[in-house]
Inverse folding.
Protein backbone atom coordinates (compact mmCIF):
# COMPACT_ATOMS: atom_id res chain seq x y z
CA UNK A 1 0.00 0.00 0.00
CA UNK A 2 1.45 3.35 -1.05
CA UNK A 3 2.78 5.71 1.61
CA UNK A 4 5.08 8.68 1.44
CA UNK A 5 7.57 9.27 4.24
CA UNK A 6 8.97 12.72 4.81
CA UNK A 7 11.76 13.51 7.28
CA UNK A 8 12.59 17.06 8.37
CA UNK A 9 15.92 18.11 9.87
CA UNK A 10 16.38 21.48 11.51
CA UNK A 11 19.67 23.20 10.68
CA UNK A 12 22.61 23.33 13.08
CA UNK A 13 23.42 26.15 15.47
CA UNK A 14 24.41 29.63 14.31
CA UNK A 15 25.66 32.59 16.32
CA UNK A 16 22.22 34.16 15.84
CA UNK A 17 20.65 31.14 17.55
CA UNK A 18 23.22 31.32 20.31
CA UNK A 19 22.48 34.98 21.00
CA UNK A 20 18.71 34.25 21.23
CA UNK A 21 17.90 36.57 18.36
CA UNK A 22 14.98 36.03 16.00
CA UNK A 23 16.40 34.31 12.90
CA UNK A 24 13.98 34.53 10.02
CA UNK A 25 14.14 34.46 6.25
CA UNK A 26 16.19 37.66 5.90
CA UNK A 27 18.98 36.41 8.18
CA UNK A 28 21.43 34.31 6.16
CA UNK A 29 23.78 33.13 8.89
CA UNK A 30 26.17 30.22 8.53
CA UNK A 31 26.73 27.47 11.07
CA UNK A 32 29.11 28.36 13.86
CA UNK A 33 31.92 26.02 14.86
CA UNK A 34 29.84 24.30 17.54
CA UNK A 35 26.97 23.94 15.07
CA UNK A 36 29.17 22.27 12.47
CA UNK A 37 30.74 19.89 14.96
CA UNK A 38 27.38 18.92 16.44
CA UNK A 39 25.88 18.35 12.97
CA UNK A 40 28.84 16.13 12.09
CA UNK A 41 28.30 14.06 15.25
CA UNK A 42 24.59 13.70 14.53
CA UNK A 43 25.24 12.80 10.89
CA UNK A 44 27.34 9.83 11.99
CA UNK A 45 24.06 8.21 13.06
CA UNK A 46 22.15 9.13 9.91
CA UNK A 47 21.90 7.18 6.64
CA UNK A 48 21.02 9.38 3.65
CA UNK A 49 21.01 6.48 1.19
CA UNK A 50 17.36 5.56 1.87
CA UNK A 51 15.98 8.84 0.50
CA UNK A 52 14.65 9.31 -3.02
CA UNK A 53 15.06 13.08 -2.93
CA UNK A 54 16.57 15.78 -0.72
CA UNK A 55 15.11 19.28 -0.58
CA UNK A 56 16.69 22.17 1.28
CA UNK A 57 16.07 25.80 2.14
CA UNK A 58 18.42 28.05 0.14
CA UNK A 59 19.71 29.73 3.32
CA UNK A 60 23.34 28.97 4.25
CA UNK A 61 22.62 27.34 7.58
CA UNK A 62 20.26 24.81 5.98
CA UNK A 63 22.47 24.06 2.96
CA UNK A 64 25.53 23.52 5.16
CA UNK A 65 23.57 21.18 7.44
CA UNK A 66 22.20 19.25 4.45
CA UNK A 67 25.70 18.82 3.03
CA UNK A 68 26.89 17.37 6.34
CA UNK A 69 23.95 14.96 6.72
CA UNK A 70 23.90 13.75 3.10
CA UNK A 71 27.70 13.21 2.98
CA UNK A 72 27.90 13.96 -0.72
CA UNK A 73 25.60 11.05 -1.60
CA UNK A 74 22.57 13.07 -2.74
CA UNK A 75 21.79 16.03 -4.95
CA UNK A 76 20.39 18.93 -2.93
CA UNK A 77 17.35 20.60 -4.47
CA UNK A 78 16.91 24.13 -3.13
CA UNK A 79 13.32 25.35 -2.79
CA UNK A 80 12.24 28.86 -1.75
CA UNK A 81 9.10 27.45 -0.14
CA UNK A 82 11.40 26.04 2.56
CA UNK A 83 12.77 29.44 3.58
CA UNK A 84 12.32 30.26 7.24
CA UNK A 85 9.31 32.31 8.36
CA UNK A 86 9.82 35.98 7.50
CA UNK A 87 9.53 38.01 10.71
CA UNK A 88 9.84 41.30 8.86
CA UNK A 89 11.02 44.12 11.13
CA UNK A 90 11.61 41.64 13.95
CA UNK A 91 14.28 39.64 12.11
CA UNK A 92 17.55 39.86 13.99
CA UNK A 93 16.05 41.36 17.14
CA UNK A 94 16.66 39.90 20.57
CA UNK A 95 13.68 37.84 21.67
CA UNK A 96 14.03 39.30 25.17
CA UNK A 97 13.82 42.81 23.70
CA UNK A 98 10.59 42.25 21.79
CA UNK A 99 9.10 40.41 24.76
CA UNK A 100 9.80 43.45 26.93
CA UNK A 101 8.39 45.89 24.36
CA UNK A 102 5.42 43.80 23.18
CA UNK A 103 4.58 41.14 25.79
CA UNK A 104 1.19 40.55 24.18
CA UNK A 105 2.94 39.26 21.01
CA UNK A 106 4.84 36.51 22.83
CA UNK A 107 2.96 33.31 23.68
CA UNK A 108 3.02 31.57 27.10
CA UNK A 109 5.78 29.26 25.84
CA UNK A 110 8.07 32.16 24.99
CA UNK A 111 7.55 31.97 21.22
CA UNK A 112 6.51 34.74 18.84
CA UNK A 113 2.71 34.71 18.69
CA UNK A 114 0.56 35.04 15.59
CA UNK A 115 -0.41 38.64 16.42
CA UNK A 116 3.23 39.79 16.22
CA UNK A 117 2.44 41.09 12.75
CA UNK A 118 0.70 44.20 14.09
CA UNK A 119 4.14 45.31 15.32
CA UNK A 120 6.05 43.97 12.29
CA UNK A 121 3.68 44.69 9.39
CA UNK A 122 6.19 43.62 6.76
CA UNK A 123 6.39 40.14 8.28
CA UNK A 124 4.76 36.99 6.98
CA UNK A 125 1.41 35.78 8.26
CA UNK A 126 0.99 32.27 9.59
CA UNK A 127 -1.69 31.73 6.94
CA UNK A 128 0.83 32.46 4.19
CA UNK A 129 3.37 30.15 5.81
CA UNK A 130 0.78 27.37 6.04
CA UNK A 131 -0.08 27.91 2.38
CA UNK A 132 3.49 27.48 1.12
CA UNK A 133 4.03 24.49 3.38
CA UNK A 134 0.88 22.89 1.99
CA UNK A 135 1.91 23.56 -1.60
CA UNK A 136 5.28 21.94 -0.97
CA UNK A 137 3.78 18.84 0.66
CA UNK A 138 1.20 18.45 -2.12
CA UNK A 139 3.97 18.53 -4.73
CA UNK A 140 5.99 15.94 -2.81
CA UNK A 141 2.95 13.65 -2.64
CA UNK A 142 2.48 14.00 -6.38
CA UNK A 143 6.13 13.30 -7.20
CA UNK A 144 6.90 10.64 -4.58
CA UNK A 145 3.62 8.94 -3.59
CA UNK A 146 5.48 5.92 -2.23
CA UNK A 147 8.89 7.54 -1.77
CA UNK A 148 11.07 8.90 1.01
CA UNK A 149 11.83 12.61 1.04
CA UNK A 150 14.36 14.43 3.21
CA UNK A 151 13.89 18.13 3.94
CA UNK A 152 16.50 20.28 5.69
CA UNK A 153 15.06 23.57 6.85
CA UNK A 154 14.22 25.76 9.85
CA UNK A 155 12.55 25.68 13.25
CA UNK A 156 9.41 27.72 12.59
CA UNK A 157 9.00 26.31 9.07
CA UNK A 158 9.13 22.75 10.43
CA UNK A 159 6.65 23.64 13.19
CA UNK A 160 4.21 24.72 10.49
CA UNK A 161 4.90 21.65 8.34
CA UNK A 162 3.98 19.51 11.34
CA UNK A 163 0.95 21.67 12.05
CA UNK A 164 -0.20 21.51 8.43
CA UNK A 165 -0.01 17.72 8.50
CA UNK A 166 -1.44 17.12 11.97
CA UNK A 167 -3.47 20.07 13.33
CA UNK A 168 -4.93 22.07 10.42
CA UNK A 169 -2.16 24.65 10.71
CA UNK A 170 -2.32 25.23 14.48
CA UNK A 171 1.39 25.80 14.92
CA UNK A 172 1.13 26.65 18.63
CA UNK A 173 0.73 22.94 19.36
CA UNK A 174 4.36 22.26 18.33
CA UNK A 175 7.60 23.23 20.02
CA UNK A 176 10.58 24.38 17.97
CA UNK A 177 12.85 21.38 17.45
CA UNK A 178 16.43 21.44 18.68
CA UNK A 179 19.18 22.25 16.21
CA UNK A 180 19.74 19.08 14.12
CA UNK A 181 16.55 17.56 15.55
CA UNK A 182 14.52 15.26 13.25
CA UNK A 183 10.80 14.81 12.64
CA UNK A 184 9.25 12.04 10.56
CA UNK A 185 5.77 11.78 9.04
CA UNK A 186 4.05 9.13 6.94
CA UNK A 187 1.16 9.94 4.60
CA UNK A 188 -1.05 7.14 3.30
CA UNK A 189 -4.34 7.62 1.42
CA UNK A 190 -4.92 11.03 2.95
CA UNK A 191 -4.18 9.94 6.52
CA UNK A 192 -1.13 11.57 8.10
CA UNK A 193 0.82 10.09 10.99
CA UNK A 194 3.66 11.60 12.99
CA UNK A 195 6.21 8.87 13.70
CA UNK A 196 8.51 11.07 15.81
CA UNK A 197 9.29 14.72 16.50
CA UNK A 198 12.55 16.30 17.70
CA UNK A 199 14.56 13.09 17.63
CA UNK A 200 18.16 13.74 18.65
CA UNK A 201 20.99 11.77 17.00
CA UNK A 202 24.00 13.22 18.83
CA UNK A 203 24.67 13.20 22.54
Amino acid sequence: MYAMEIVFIRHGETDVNKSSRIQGASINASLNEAGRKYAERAAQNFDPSEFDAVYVSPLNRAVETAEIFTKGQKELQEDDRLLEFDYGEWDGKLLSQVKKEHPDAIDPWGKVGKNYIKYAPNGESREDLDKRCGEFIDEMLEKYPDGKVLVVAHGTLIRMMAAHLMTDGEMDKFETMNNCGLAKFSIRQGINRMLYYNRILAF
In short: The mean pLDDT is 96. The chain has one domain: 4-199.
